[in-house]
Every structure is written in structure tokens, then in C-alpha cells.
């Protein structure tokens, strides 16, 4: 491995969260951005080809070393680490709406889901998956919510654009339903 | 069980089909599931039938959970009623189901995103990252090593500091009796009789009031004037004493 790849590996190993490319580039001021990208690719190849127990993943706006899924059971059995709790269906639905419509207020989420979402918003906020992004100009200036970098991390997304565009979903939302004959 | 008879007879016999509403994340979810079950066209929902089924399903709900479902039930019944209204041949007919269809499609679209998030989340969940280990907290301070004399010295220092209370220094304004005497004398030269309130204003400073009082008493003692008060709390009258003046 090149010295730069080793440096990046050490930094990635030391960090608990994904490191953005810009921060990785700061590790070696001499190295141009292209070299850093190449070194990341080298490290990823190294993990994949040589058969390591970890892999290099791009997610949450940065890069992170993660253990491979096949060792999860064993690690959890040995109580070295435990998987986070799964999100409830209500939480996932609320997150999906916020991810696509952010910034969005509580009333609009409830309109789409057809149920009260106060409790769900609170718990998502506590888990750091959503944040208050401001207040809308509407009546009562209600709070507006958006997703956090932790949301991307949680779902192994590189960025929000990685989610399929609304019109790419199997059922496209039609502005006007076909008229009934 | 009498309620069950309200549902339309169906060849699949769904009356025996037990549904746990907890499995649904809301009225739209339940509605979509009914539509899928019956293999209905979402753009042409037989609203009367679906409303009946919807009502049958939510009968088991407790009141606390029912609010969201009842709102939808009311909406379905209203659409059902609107569908029964006669429509004119020529005028453009607005399908009362349009808004419901739009919401169902929107909800369905959101469910697709949920599936995607669920898949991605499950993948990520099966991988561990380095966990964040907070830096060690600073060690607690060592127990105090202190002798009795040191402690007493410290107490002494504290008491010494506390013994100098921060008190305001009040600078007393000296009474100006000679000044007041001069004023009274001047007044009595002009007039034979003066009232107390004419010398001392209502808002006069206390030092001036006292100076004037002392001056008055002084002059009365010298016999230059006489002080007279007709009744308690009445105005004090000051008169030139001709005899004293002569003296």
C-alpha cells in the first residue's frame, strides 16, 4: 500500500464516524485531491481483494471502515457490540416523508400518513435522525424538520440524492388521476 | 358477530379472516391492504364496498387508537354519499374519490421509500463501525491534606475578611442654623408676621427644615420673635417681638 493509503487507513480506523473527503485530504496537505481519492480506492481494493474482515464504505457524506456483515452474528454473540434497534414502521414512514419533502412541518406529515405523528417525531429527534431546520411562514409558524447526517449514516446512504427520485418510483405520483370514464 | 353480516358476502369468505390492526401503520395502510386484497383498481374503487369493509375492520379498535381510523371512515362515508348524488349528463363531473386516490398513491409511493430505507437500514445494521469511546473523565481531586492549625488559619482569614462589612458611608449635611437665622431676620424685617409654611416649602430638604426650626427657637430665646400655634397641627405663626427688637 502507498504511504497515503496507510495514513488514510489509520485515520479512518481512529474515527467513530464517517470522515468527509475534504477532511481526509487535510491529513496530507501535499497530496492533491485526486491522489486521496485514488488512495481510498486502493484501500477499498486492498480490503476486498486480500479478504479482510472489514470493508471501506462511502456513506453519510464520508468514508468509514465497517465490519463485514458475515461476522455480525459472532460479534454480537460474544457481546462485543450489539446492533441498534430496528426503527418502527411508523418511524420509517415518517422518515421517508421527511427525507423527500424536507423542510416539512408536522401537519403535512400527518396529512400524508393519515395519523398523528407527534410521538414519532419526538423519538426520531431524540435518536438524532431528524432536526428542526426552522419555522415555516404559515399560520402559527410551525416547526420544520429535515434529516441529519446521522440519517444518511443509519441507512448507508452517501447523500440524499442517492434516494430514488420521486418519478423513478414504481407508482409515480400523478398530479391528476386518470378521469373516470 | 351480527356486525359481520353487514359486510358484503364474498366468495373468498374474508369474514373469517382475522386482521390485527396493530399490523397497520394507519388508515391509509389498512385501506391499501383492503384494495390489494380485493384486487381492486385504485383508480376506480367501489367505495360502498370498501367503506363497509373498512368499518368492519375498525370495530375491534379501542377508542384510543380509533381516532385516526374514524376520520378516514367518515371520509369514506362522505365519498360514498357523494357518489350516490345524481350527476348531470353535460356538466363536468368531479370524481369525489379523486382526493382519496391521490392520497393513496402518495402513501403508496412513500411506502416504496420505506421499503428501500428498511433494506438499506438492515444492511447497515449488520455492520459495525468503530464505536466512539469518550475520553476518560479527569480523575477526582486528591483528598485534602490539612492540619488543624491550617484549617483554623483559613477560618481566621475568612472571618477577618467578613468582619469588614461593606456599609455605606453617610455624609451628614451640616445644619446651617446661622443661614436660617439670617433668612428669618430678613423676612421679619419686611413683614411683622410670617407663617411657617411661607418660610419652609412643602418639598424643602430635611436639613433646611431642621435649620429653620433651630433658628426659630434660637431667635425666640433671644426674644426677637414669638412663635404661636393656634391649635395642634395648625400652621405656626411667627411674629416680630417689638420688645425684643427694641432691646
Care to describe what's here?
The complex is a heterodimer of chains A (181) and B (247). Chain A has helices at 3-14, 21-26, 33-49, 72-77, 89-101, 106-113, 118-126, 149-154; strands spanning 54-59, 62-67, 104-105, 130-135, 143-147. In chain A, the strands form 2 sheets. In chain A, strands 3-5-4 form a 3-stranded antiparallel sheet. Chain A has a two-stranded antiparallel sheet with strand order 1-2. Chain A folds into 2 domains: 3-77, Orthogonal Bundle (Arc Repressor Mutant, subunit A); 89-168, Arc Repressor Mutant, subunit A (Orthogonal Bundle). Chain A has 8 helices and 5 strands; from the N terminus they run αααββααβααββα. In chain B, strands 1-3-2 form a 3-stranded antiparallel sheet. In chain B, helix 1 (27-37) crosses helix 4 (98-125), helix 2 runs antiparallel to helix 3 (63-84) and helix 6 crosses helix 8. Chain B is mainly α and 247 residues long. The longest helix of chain B has 28 residues, at 98-125. Mean pLDDT of chain B is 79; it is low at 1-18.
